[in-house]
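Below is how a single chain appears once it has passed through the pipeline. First comes the sequence as given, then the structure the pipeline wrote out for it. We keep one example in the README because the format questions we get most often are answered faster by looking than by reading.
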Amino acid sequence: MLWFSHHNPYNYVQLNLNSGSTFGLISVWLADPSETSPSQVPISFIGFLANGSTVTNTFVTLGGDRYAFQKYAFTSAFAADLLRVDIFAPRWAMDNLVWVPEPGTWALLAVGVGMLSCVWFRSSKKQHR
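Resulting structure:
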């Protein structure tokens, strides 16, 4: 994954695959990086889909002076077809981002040819018995 860090008041970060392929997000661990933060911090993930639409998930850190990573799951709208994701928050810490690459056309074709080869091999073996 390729990360672009932009320094502005929202600590905006953008992520996408180097190849420009689509991907999906499953889960992420988030925390407020300030150990003495009394308030909760909203962290928004805005996904840009291949069809031109957007999806949003906003997670909120624990707050109350509790500095701990918490696991958050993305909605099914983030499961596939993402071209890029922008992350907006005044401050945040992230770990264990679970993402899924989308299979490319050639990969699917290779799997199909492999399966056909197995079927052909098995059927030719039965005919020679």
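The chain has a mean pLDDT of 79.

See the next section for the split statistics.
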